[in-house]
Design a protein that fits this description.
The complex is a heterodimer of chains A (869) and B (545). Chain A is of the alpha+beta class. Chain A is built from 36 helices and 23 strands. Chain A starts with a helix and ends in a 6-residue tail after the last strand. The chains are: A alpha+beta (869), B alpha/beta (545).
Chain lengths: 869, 545
């Protein structure tokens, strides 16, 4: 690659991309990952893909408000426009300093995203973006500007144009093109224009004022009034269709003092602090809430332990079951939906997949339950942060008017993880202990990711502010964070801060300041806007580290579990804090929970004591247990209660038998019992004349006959079956995967590989333009490439095989030339997995899948390691 | 973070009583939290909307409440709860009842949507008159109580600034010769007078009558006193003559037998609720004089028609007195909304600790049914079951044994079933007071019991309330009105008057084991157990042996 090429102004986006360095390409691909799925063959293809409508819409939707405004301004600017022209459009004639300061960043961002290319004197918006953003009668621009004079006069008769020229006292010319140019030049000239407008009647100027901020279209009758006629005569209003006139862009810009936007928003609105609490209070409150969250999830699972509610046919939980769960948890229904979804998202509950499908705890729940509390919390919080399922929409209706049920389908909102992360990051930006003003958080989010199109104006003007999905998710995030204990009293707590990987100590500086970009240019500093959009989500490893840190920070905030309770004579026990699990389990069995929170109040009732006895405890056990765990003497009424219940417990005995033997003669039964052959029948004497058998009636009959008796069968009544209630578990189930919108964000390795591949492909496809063979010798791979009409690498078969085998070991990607069965040659970037039997199996980066190639069709191979870039 | 208070998510507050800050904390939360249970280690308070609004009415704001919770809480207070408290308290005072010079009683608002909301309610519509301006609506003066009650139910309590009528003045002074009001009685009177109207809760035997007298001495106006029965009316009269400047002639009795209306009139609930031809002829009593104060004794027994009428008396000062504001019909909140909020409440054990009521030893004696009785019990009709087990023969033997053990002390035997009581009376050689006993006979028997001429008295439920028998030291309960908690408390109250010699009181409840009797007993004891009275359980054999 020669330096001449770099200095020459690029003629297309592809050329502009070609001169960018790897870091800047990586930045592009990171922010627009759809461009490398699959990896394009070369930069031309990359540029084409970057110009497709779908990709451009996606990119525009991810711009912050000021960058979008900048793009919108470029769409109404001449193509190409110089930076100065852009600045004038954004900052207006009076040159807003804030705009001037922020504009380089916005321009650089647009350039990095390959939405704008070209040097500062020739900034070009990619064509698709221009089409999307430029005003047209069908799609009014957010700028409120109309068509240019040239566009508006396109179908006008030359005679009419002459009349306008005459009316504004311009020298007449018969060339329509130069006439229109002269008119446009007049409108753009502030001084002459001011004079022209000054000559108009007051009413005419009022008409212009009405149209100036858009929409620029107006209706006129066949016989317009004098003040309208004055405007039409001077071309200040131009007809577009019968009865419709438009204010030309140049005129509007003059009236707006050059500004494309009524209110450019160069600075993100700051997140305001509503109140500041001591960090200790915040952490303690959050920890308390975190403990409550764990208790709630465990309570939910306990509630469903012996088989939860059934699964609706369409999937999900019925409204009635949700209500019931809400009552059981003593929370409002939306909150119940949150807990249920949280447990589901963490893989703690799932459908059991049986014929009568029900929800039940998964085996993972039992593992989770054994973790220390802080880690249990970190699991939940980590799940919550990255989940795309949004419990907030439960109870609403989908596009087909079907009610969205908790645990049901269609709850995934791909924006959720990013919004959650962003909201927490904004909280992290506040001083420690400060809780935000909700509205300011929403405003900030709207600035960072404004809605495009007509919704923008609705959301921006009406009272319905913040009803868009992202704002709703943000609001849910704030309330859910509080429920989970990520925040305490509205402020981000230390574990929550760690969870999103934010630095432990927040910057004391005010929120919202941005680093100055180093100036526009194709060579961009990559990281300068990372802090602003923060689109790069943490990797799996980073997230794991973050949750571990969060758990570590949270653990000391949890109160130590207690090993004692206070027993009182009114048959209650108070645990003045969280209990050790073993103690809590036994106490939960022996007494009913009456009140929960920091402490737990238990009440002993005959029923609860019986439950403990049923579970195999003896009265002596219970007395010892209470004596061991009570700080005070066990009250006498409680001792009595246990003894009383125990005295009556088990006086009636119930057992299971499969069959019985009845005989009026005791001696016969003695005989049967004495017979060794009857041992297999599992007989037991219940009364002098009755034996119970474990064998079923048929086996019993056979057995007795074999011994030599002649028994007769009785009717089947009397067969007792007792089903023991059992914990119900699903088979192993994986937690639902988040459903992100679009491809996953590529990590650095993939990015590097992709760039190498694209460069390689690009190099390959551009090589023929270079004069002479061997020009690419220094590129390391295509050394022998010299065949006319193609840049396929050429290596000997032995060398190919050796390189392939080496690559299998090192896992490196290779660039190969390949001729298919039809004889068509192509270049591919592959990562060989194995070489055997004359075939190479490899991951084809170009095709984005694993393929197998016959080695004899591989023309040659080159390593990608040192690419010339 | 090592305070004495634990704030639970269900809005109960657990106070560790042995904590060094417990007393401070109790004072801080008392204005807005209701004491629910007071057993030995941890007392339970509950935060209710009513309590929060009462606190607002008494001049406390949400910040003070939140501060009190945060200050004394051992664990962080759930944020949602704090928000809820602030929001609940914020609802109070959006509506105000006041006197308008031109329109009379009016309901005004500081928040117009609230007024619109409540006016939409069907229950409010008949109570209000014309809208005088956007924020004001006229209220029929007679519906003052009704509208307050309804607004409370709608969750928008009105602040009542319309004030009280002074009533007809009548000089009343306390005659504190050789005695004075106890500190808690003074406090109760002061709280009541400051609040205007309300309920004072004091344990049995703690001198509620004197709180009534103290309130009258503050009001210095004609007073109507409503009591449960005639004997109680006489006791009130006796006590008032003794403790105040009032003379016999100034106090009238309005009962089944006498219909006197005097500056201070004592009427029974029974006569007020007598119905003839569908009307209550005696309710006129409320209007017969310009009463400045109305005292409701044993307010937990307030009958429904009196509720209704009380609603119309909102312009007069009202004082409710009770030991046990637990109603098995759950109408406690009606008492609070119509008579007024709780102005004073003292845990029984606290008064006991100050020595104003006798310490009591509560014992539950469990007797076994004989085999024959068990069979009879098992086969009895559902409605007869309790009677069967409650009147088992063994109870008689146990009762006799207890009476023998305390021979020489003043003993009350209390029961529900007349047959059982008659039989007991016969075996113990003691007189029986029951419903059919005439008032004269009752008073005579009570008097000779007080004088020590009789040492054992068998009484039916007629003696549940307001019977002042200071010398009784032992009460034996053989049966009761099913699971009534307040009856149990009232019966214990019969023996709680402080003894001249500082004697301990004994309360025996004889219960048949493994029967309904035992279940009811457990329920009956709940109130006292929650007040910190720990029942001891004994087997009948221990008593008999």
């Amino acid at each position: 690659m020669s330096t001449e090429e770099k200095s020459a102004a690029p003629r297309s986006l592809a050329e502009a991309l070609r001169v960018r360095d790897d870091v800047s390409l990586a930045a592009l691909l990171r922010s627009r990952p759809d461009l490398i799925t699959p990896v394009p063959t070369d930069l031309t293809q990359l540029a084409t893909r970057a110009g497709t409508r779908a990709s451009v819409v996606r990119a525009l939707e991810r711009l912050d408000r000021f960058a979008l405004q900048t793009a919108e301004a470029l769409a109404v600017a001449p193509d190409p426009a110089s930076y100065g022209e852009l600045l004038a459009l954004m900052g207006g004639d009076e040159q807003d300093p804030a705009v001037a300061a922020a504009l380089p960043r916005a321009a650089a961002l647009l350039r990095e995203q390959a939405l704008v290319w070209g040097a500062d004197d020739r900034l070009r918006l990619v064509r698709t973006a221009r089409e999307l953003l430029a005003p047209s009668p069908q799609h009014p621009s957010p700028t409120g500007l109309g068509p240019t004079v040239r566009e508006a006069t396109a179908g006008m008769s030359p005679g009419r144009i002459q009349e306008i020229l005459a009316a504004v006292r311009l020298p007449s010319t018969h060339d329509s093109v130069s006439a229109v140019s002269a008119l446009a030049a007049l409108f753009a000239d502030r001084r002459r224009m001011a004079a022209l407008l000054a000559g108009l009647p007051e009413e005419s100027r009022e008409v212009l004022d009405r149209l100036v901020w858009g929409p620029p279209y107006g209706q006129v009758t066949h016989d317009p009034a004098a003040h309208l006629r004055a405007l039409l005569d001077r071309g200040l209003l131009l007809p577009t269709a019968p009865g419709t006139v438009v204010l030309p862009r140049e005129v509007a810009l003059h009236l707006r003092a050059g500004r494309a936007h009524r209110a450019p928003e160069p600075v993100p609105p700051p997140v305001e602090a509503a109140a500041t609490h001591r960090p200790q209070v915040v952490d303690a409150t959050a920890a308390g809430q975190a403990l409550a969250a764990l208790a709630t999830v465990e309570e939910l699972l306990k509630e469903w332990d012996e088989g939860g509610p059934s699964v609706l046919r369409a999937g999900g939980l019925s409204v009635r079951d949700l209500k019931r769960t809400a009552v059981a948890l003593d929370v409002p229904e939306p909150v119940a939906a949150f807990w249920v979804e949280l447990a589901y998202g963490a893989g703690l509950i799932a459908s059991d997949g049986e014929a009568e499908e029900r929800y039940a705890a998964t085996p993972a729940y039992d593992e989770w339950r054994e973790l220390p509390p802080a880690e249990r919390w970190a699991r939940l919080a980590g799940t919550w942060l990255t989940a795309t399922r949004t419990p907030g929409v439960v109870g609403g209706r989908d596009a087909k008017e079907r009610t969205l049920s908790a645990l049901g389908p269609n709850l995934d909102r791909s924006a959720a993880p990013e919004v959650r992360h962003r909201v927490l990051a904004l909280l992290a930006g506040l001083p420690e202990g400060a809780s935000p003003v909700e509205e300011s958080v929403l405003a900030r989010l709207r600035w960072e990711r404004p809605l495009r199109g007509p919704q923008q104006r609705e959301a921006g003007s009406g009272d319905g502010r913040g009803d868009d999905l992202r704002s709703r998710i943000a609001r849910w995030t704030l309330s859910e964070a509080e429920l989970l204990g990520v925040t305490g009293r509205g402020a981000l707590a230390a574990p929550g801060r760690a969870l999103i990987g934010a630095p432990e100590a927040p910057r004391p500086a005010a929120e919202g300041e941005m680093e100055e970009p180093e100036g526009p240019g194709d060579k961009l500093p990559v990281h300068h806007h990372r802090a602003l959009t923060a689109t790069a989500p943490p990797t799996v490893a980073e997230r794991a580290a973050a949750t571990t840190t969060a758990a570590r920070l949270l653990a000391p905030l949890f109160p130590e579990p207690l090993d004692h309770v206070l027993l009182q004579a009114d048959l209650t026990a108070v645990a003045p804090g969280p209990l050790e699990r073993g103690l809590a389990d036994v106490l939960g069995m022996l007494a009913d929970v009456e009140s929960k929170g920091g402490a737990t109040v238990y009440r002993f009732t005959p029923g609860s004591v019986r439950r403990a006895l049923d579970a195999g405890r003896s009265a002596a056990d219970l007395h010892a247990f209470l004596a061991r765990h009570s700080r005070t003497p066990v009250p006498q009424p409680l001792t009595y209660l246990i003894d009383d219940v125990a005295r009556r417990h088990g006086r009636l005995r119930v057992g299971a038998a499969s069959a019985y033997v009845r005989c009026d003669d005791d001696a016969t039964l003695d005989e049967i019992l004495a017979d060794k052959r009857a041992a297999a029948l599992g007989l037991r004497r219940l009364a002098p004349t009755v034996l119970a058998a474990q064998a079923d009636p048929a086996a019993l009959l056979d057995g007795l006959r074999a011994i030599g008796f002649a028994p007769a069968a009785e009717s089947a009544a009397g067969d007792v079956l007792i089903a023991r209630a059992d914990s119900h578990r699903t088979p192993p189930r994986a937690a639902p995967e988040p459903v992100p919108d679009g491809p996953p964000a590529p990590d650095d390795t993939l990015l590097a590989a992709a760039i190498r591949a694209v460069r390689a492909g690009d190099l390959a496809s551009t090589a023929p333009r270079k004069p002479g063979p061997g020009s690419g010798a220094s590129d390391g791979g295509g050394g022998e490439a010299g065949a006319p009409g193609g840049a396929l690498p050429r290596t000997s078969a032995a060398e190919t095989l050796a390189t392939m085998q080496a690559a299998v070991l090192t896992g490196e990607a290779l660039w190969i030339g390949y001729v298919n069965a039809e004889g068509a040659a192509s270049q591919r970037v592959i990562a060989p997995i194995r070489v055997e039997g004359g075939f190479v199996t490899a991951y084809d980066h170009t095709a984005d899948e694993v393929r197998t190639y016959p080695l004899h069709r591989v023309t040659g191979v080159a390593e990608l390691a040192d690419d010339a870039g | 973070m090592n305070g004495p208070l634990i704030v639970q998510s269900d809005k109960t507050l657990l106070l560790e009583v042995d904590h060094e800050q417990a007393a401070d904390c109790r004072r801080a939360i008392a204005p807005f939290a209701e004491l629910e249970r007071a057993p030995e280690h941890i007392h339970t308070y509950r935060v209710t909307p009513l309590g929060l609004w009462n606190a607002r009415a008494a001049g406390h704001d949400a910040e003070q409440v939140v501060d009190a919770l945060v200050e004394y809480s051992r664990y962080p207070v759930p944020h949602a709860l704090l928000v809820d408290i602030a929001e609940t308290m914020d609802r109070y005072g959006r509506l105000t009842l006041s006197k308008h010079p031109a329109h009379g009683l009016v309901l005004t608002t500081t928040d117009r949507p609230v007024l619109e909301e409540v006016l939409k309610s069907k229950r409010i519509a008949p109570l209000v008159g014309a809208r005088t301006d956007a924020d004001t609506v006229a209220v029929h003066p007679s519906e003052r109580g009704q509208i307050k009650q309804t607004l409370l139910k709608l969750g928008w309590p009105a602040e009542d600034l319309a004030g009280y009528v002074d009533g007809e003045a009548h000089p009343i002074e306390l005659a504190e010769d050789g005695w004075t009001l106890r500190p808690y009685q003074k406090q109760a009177v002061e709280n009541f007078w400051h609040g205007g109207s309300g309920v004072v809760v004091l344990p049995c035997g703690a001198g509620k009558t004197l709180v009534g007298a103290g309130a009258m001495a503050q009001a210095k106006s004609t007073t109507l006193i409503l009591v449960t029965n005639t004997v109680s009316a006489r006791q009130w009269k006796h006590e008032l003559v003794k403790r105040t400047s009032l003379t016999e002639d100034e106090i009238g009795e309005y009962s089944g037998t006498r219909k006197e209306i005097r500056p201070v009139t004592i009427a029974t609930y029974q006569v007020l609720t007598t119905r003839r031809k569908g009307v209550y002829p005696h309710l006129e009593l409320f209007d017969s004089r310009d009463w400045g104060l109305i005292v409701y004794d044993e307010v937990h027994l307030l009958p429904a028609p009196v509720f209704k009428f009380t609603a119309d008396l909102q312009a007069r000062r009202r004082l409710g007195l009770t030991a046990t504001l637990v109603r098995e019909d759950g109408r406690e909140s009606d008492v609070f909304s119509l008579i007024g909020p709780k102005r004073f409440d003292a845990p029984w054990k606290e008064i006991e600790a100050q020595g104003y009521i006798a310490p009591a030893d509560c014992v539950e004696v469990r007797v076994n049914l004989t085999d024959a009785e068990r069979l009879a019990y098992a086969t009895a009709e559902a409605e007869e079951k309790y009677r069967f087990c409650a009147t088992t023969d063994t109870k008689r033997k146990v009762t006799e044994a207890i009476v023998r053990r305390f021979a020489g002390q003043q003993i009350l035997v209390i029961g529900q079933y007349i047959d059982q009581l008659d039989e007991l009376g016969e075996h113990l050689g003691a007189p029986v007071i029951k419903g059919e006993t005439s008032n004269a006979q009752r008073e005579k028997l009570f008097e000779s019991f007080r004088q020590g001429e009789i040492s054992v008295l068998v009484v039916s439920k007629v003696a549940n309330f307001s019977i002042d028998l200071p010398e009784a030291t032992v009460a034996i309960q053989v049966s009761g009105t099913f699971g009534s908690r307040q009856e149990e408390a009232q019966r214990l109250g019969r023996v709680l008057r402080p003894k001249a010699d500082g004697h301990q009181a004994h309360f025996y409840s004889v219960v048949a084991r493994d029967t309904l009797d035992q279940d009811f007993a457990a329920h009956r004891q709940r109130f006292l157990a929650e007040q910190g009275y720990a029942y001891r359980i004994m087997d009948a054999d221990e008593v008999l042996g």
